[in-house]
Amino acid sequence: MATTPNMSRQPWSSMGQAMLEARPECSAPVRHDALLAVLGIFTTDSEHSHRHRTEARKTWLAQASRSASLDVRFVARTRGLRVRSPLHAESRNHGDFVFINASSRLSRSQGPLATLWAWMHCAVARWPNTELLGKADDDVMLLLPSITAHLRGSLDELRRIQNVPERIPESPSMLWGVQESYHWDVVTRRPDGFDDEFSYKRNCMLRNPLLKHTQSIGPFNFAKGACLFVSMGLTRQLLTHRVKEEIEAAMAAADSISAPMRVALSHLENPRALPWEDVLLGWALTTTVASEAAAFVHIGRHVYAEEWYNAGVGLGLAPSTLILHNRGKRSARLKRAHRWSQRHHCAPPSVRLECAAEPYISCAGATWRRCTASAEPYAAASCSTVITHNISGRAPPSAACERHALRTLPMRRDVPALRAGHCGETEFGDFDCSEDDSGAWHIRSLDNKTLEGCMARCACCERCRYVSFAPSRGDCSWYHACNLSDGLQDTLEKGTVSIGMRAPPA
């Protein structure tokens, strides 16, 4: 019979001094209806968090009110909160807060841990018939309808894979999110070897040391904390296990030990400190859960973005994006990203999970499946690539534009050709540009066939606002109003070859 490994060798076992008091009282009323999930967005009374909440309510959070299967709340710690905190007035105005009995004055190292622990206690007590508990940061943008579909599809897939009869009401157990793994060095008390998705090592019971660090244990799997969901059944096991003392000790001692906890591998550009709430949750589940039908569900590729830059540089949004983590903390960009997602986002028609042939054996001896959502449903999703409206507010361009729907101006032959890339080479929008910028279509030839081909390509390109057609190169190039150099702007203002888009005739 599998037993839990000696707690003295677990991460954070030597931290315990005074336990942090985080009792489970919370302000939420009991909700008995059967929901798919309850999602807590962790927030504070800082000005940054206030701006994030304001933008969220104006954009992606508006979808939550239309969901019958998902309850979304802001979660804030209130013990020690100042009397005139804006959180109180905000809660009265919007009614979307849950206040938990934990100190509001904790550090960045302690605060999220205390919030997660108290939120789990609260959710289990106040949403007793809900299948999943979720946690998100307040600087994210979530595509809630698609996340709901992904969660439901993941549970259905696990039922199919595990051959769970439909007559059994209990849902499969899972930790859902962007999965990663790490090892823990019990001597230096530092993490070793963060891996994307799942570690190739499959048995935590064997300690599985890294090649050069024989004192390490693991691997521990976890879901990134920007947005994750865990089954209520797993949460209940965690809250009733003796590991809760270890978690509370970790919260109490977080400040004193976080500084030296750095990732040992040099190839990581941003070494992260521990313990954070997502890493600790993964360790706790790996250590305590005795379920034989649990699963780590990696939500797939091209569905999570941590930051976005100009198109083609770094990470960016895609039609399949479900979670955007706005690490730059800029609310204006969140608004632009929401506009982009409204025009481009495609909900996956279905979710297919591909699970590793050999399961993962946790430190508690439990068998966990390691499953990844297949990327094929996203590639096959049916999206309209035609822009729903152009920046000047006129009718949208269409691949079916006819020649007589366009108005041409005389071409000046003394202006050299200018190029800036291929129309349609990217679907990413330019988030530094205003939607109110005016634009015109620019070409280098009045040949009907090539003109129509250029316009058809441009109609499917989000960044296509100015087009330059070069017969010698056999393609058309695009420009965006916000990206134009002074020289190019002067050329365009002279009306070199201008085509103004009008509505095609009815």
Automatic annotation (TrEMBL):
Q: How does it sit in the membrane?
A: Single-pass type II membrane protein
Q: Which of UniProt's keywords are assigned here?
A: Glycosyltransferase, Golgi apparatus, Membrane, Signal-anchor, Transferase, Transmembrane, Transmembrane helix
- GO MF annotations, alphabetized: hexosyltransferase activity
Where primarily located?
Golgi
Q: Which GO terms describe its cellular component?
A: Golgi membrane
InterPro entries, A to Z: Glyco_trans_31 (IPR002659)
Report the EC code(s) recorded for this entry: 2.4.1.-
Q: Extract the Pfam families matched here.
A: Galactosyl_T
What does the UniProt entry say about where the protein is found?
Answer: Golgi apparatus membrane
- Transmembrane stretches, start-end: none
Per the record, the similarity remark reads: Belongs to the glycosyltransferase 31 family.
> What is this protein's record name?
Hexosyltransferase
Tell me the classification of the organism that encodes this protein. Eukaryota, Haptista, Haptophyta, Prymnesiophyceae, Prymnesiales
